[in-house]
Amino acid sequence: MSWLEGFNLAAARNVVRGVCVVSFFTSAAMVVGSAQATTPDGYLIHVGDELELDILDDNDPPQRFTVGRDGEVQLPFIGGLQVASIAVGEARDLIQRTYVQREIFVNPSVELSIASFRPISVLGDVRDPGNFDYQPFMTAEQAVGMAGGPSISANNEEARVLERRNLKGMLNSLEYDLALVAAQYARAQALLKGEASLSWANLPPDLRPGVNRELFEEHKASEDQVIAIETQNATTQRTSLTQALAEAENQVSIMQEREKVQRQIVSVSKLELTRMLDLAGRGLIPKFDVRRFELSVSRAQSDLLDQRERQSEAMMERASLEGRLSQFDSDLEQRRLTETQRYWNEINKLISNRESIEDRLALLDQWVAAASGLETEVLLEYQVRRRESGGVRKLRLEPDDELSPGDLLVIVMRPPEMLGDAQ
Question: Cystine design at 127: which of 147, 148, 261, 387 (Cβ 3.0–4.6 Å)?
């Protein structure tokens, strides 16, 4: 949609109420000086202000009191006193009269000032949104100046050139970063698929139109080197685990063969012992020889148990290596999936940032075309959200209208297409 469709330059000169013509705010922030030592008597006290009260007739130092939500300030000896929405000078006189009426002092000299104000917030179409210290009689225009001025200046040629150059530089940087992260994403995809090199096809089809392919290809060589290094490292680690597992399996096989042989030895020894017992019973051989052979059979049985124990240990080592190999494969895949998701999130952030900058460039172009020939610079709308006793009140201000402490000022830049509708 073009913002210039139906745009009427003559109608743009009619400034609507609440839509204000302002100049570039380079020097606006200088209008708001540092806090004055003494608050002007005409300043209206607001809820949340911190008052400094000094009774000059006594020797006590000045004291500070905060205006509560009910608009009252709690003062020594007299308690609550309604001071919200009245001027500092009137509040000073009110406090002096109250002390006299309640016979606390005869004719005290009272000094009253604002020690601190609630900060204001400036949001919306400004260069540096944020919170700022409030100063008495601060206007909406001055607050915008403190926030760096409008995000776009329509008739300041130098500002437009600098803004465009800055936005173009940011856009070029984002294009480069997007191509780099896209190549990293493609590399992660290639590793997941076991491919030796990344390709343009590794990017999702709906992402490809938004990525500069020439920049993508520039990153391909370095990313392919990363693929080669990571693949080699993973292969080396997996080969080491595989070889260790093969050796463990070989050990288990050897132990099983030894156990088999040892079982045969024990079986033959038992048969031989039975034969010797028979011969000894018939007196053909000495019983001493039988006892010696019995010891030999016992040792063979003990050796069999040892073989089974070592075989069990070898099988446990094999199972451990199988688990480590499986865990290695699982961790490697999980790590690459996590890396892929991280790159994808970065891509989405970069695309969002690029769209934002492109919108700002388009808005700048529209403003330049719309403001051609106009005596004005930028049309802004000042929206204020002000917390009062009855709740939050929404207002539209002129640029020279004063703000109150704690105000939330939202700056809305009117698109050129709305200038023709100004009534």
Answer: 148
CA atoms in the 13 A half-sphere facing the CB of 415: 13
> For the chain, how long is the longest CA-to-CA vector?
142
Q: Is 33 helix (H, G, I), strand (E, B) or coil?
A: coil
pLDDT band at 368 (very low <50, low <70, confident <90, very high): low
The single residue listed with the structure tokens 């540092």 is 34
Closest CA to 41 of 82, 98, 86: 86
- Please, are residues 368 and 4 in contact by the beta-carbon 8 Å criterion? no
Q: Which of 223, 221, 227 is nearest to 184 (CA)?
A: 223
This prediction has a pTM of 0.48
| Contact indicator for 117, 388 with CB cutoff of 8 Å | no
Kindly state the helix (H) or strand (E) to which residue 13 belongs, with its residue range: none
Which positions ≥6 away from 34 have C-beta within 8 Å? Answer: none
Strand partners, 130: 122
* CA dist., res. 221 & res. 35, Å (int): 60
Q: According to DSSP H, which parts of 194-286 are helical?
A: 213-281
| Sign for the pseudo-dihedral over CA of 147, 153, 155, 159 | positive
